[in-house]
Amino acid sequence: MSNSGHPKDAGERRGLMLVISSPSGAGKTTLCRKLMEEFSDIKLSVSATTRPPRPGETDGVDYHFKSREEFRDMIGKREFLEWALVFDNLYGTPRADTERLLETGHDVLFDVDWQGADALHDQMPRDVVSVFILPPSIEALKSRLAAREGSDDEIVERRMRDAKAEMRHWRRYDYAIVNDDLDVAYQRLKRILLVERLKRLRQLSLEDHVRELMGEA
Q: CB under 8 Å to 52, separation ≥6 — which residues?
């Protein structure tokens, strides 16, 4: 059963930007999927990209597919909350999509690295809630990476170097969760979401309610 709260909360609560980062292999993707399965009012941020669609991908669902010229035009108009060049392709987070969802009481989930998290926080600091997922041990992380299809020693070592580089930035986040037990880690992530939803600045109807209580309505 969904714990959505939507559409009841729409217009009563401003959504939040749940920014989740982790080294590859720490379980971030699984945790994000579980969160979206339980909460139907959480929407995954859909990035714009200049890379061509892959088989089965749908424009506006998987990505907003743009030409390089269109993407550069969006950069010039400051239409991205953040953008980056990754392996010769441009990726960015459209500002308008995020703001529309927040205003209608939806939370927006971002699966980004620490640089993306920093950029989102710089743009919308009052809306961002950031969580870093840590593995239980370096041995467990290496084992998970080695178990991935197509992995060899060289790939694992490169991913381990990337993971350590990412983990150096864990202190930049509001919360950190050690994923030593998936169910426990998920319950901790869910509690973070539920508590952050209750913050005064996100409960839009409180001002009117207090004015009514004070006889000022």
A: 65
* Residue carrying structure tokens 């009514």: 212
pLDDT in tens, 148-195: 888 889 999 999 999 999 999 999 999 999 999 999 999 999 999 999
Q: Could you identify the residue written with the tokens 């170097």?
A: 161
**What does the block give as tokens for 91?**
């990726």
Count other C-beta atoms under 10 Å from residue 26's C-beta: 26
Residue 6 has pLDDT above 90, yes or no: no
Q: Please state the φ and ψ torsions of residue 97, each to the nearest 5 degrees.
A: -60, -45
Total domains in the chain come to: 1
Round to the nearest angstrom and report the end-to-end CA distance of the chain: 38
Q: Is residue 11 part of a domain?
A: no
What range does the domain containing 65 cover? 17-213
Spatial separation of the C-alpha atoms in residues 140 and 142, rounded to whole Å: 5
What's the rounded Cα separation, in Å, for the pair 109 and 98? 10
Q: CA-CA distance, 133 to 54, in Å (whole number)? A: 29
- A 10 A CB-CB count for 120 gives 23
* 65 domain residue, yes or no: yes
The two three-digit tokens of residue 167, written as one number: 């983990």
Average confidence score pLDDT of the chain: 91
CATH code (residue 203): 3.40.50.300
Residue 4 pLDDT:
47
Write down the pLDDT at residue 5: 44
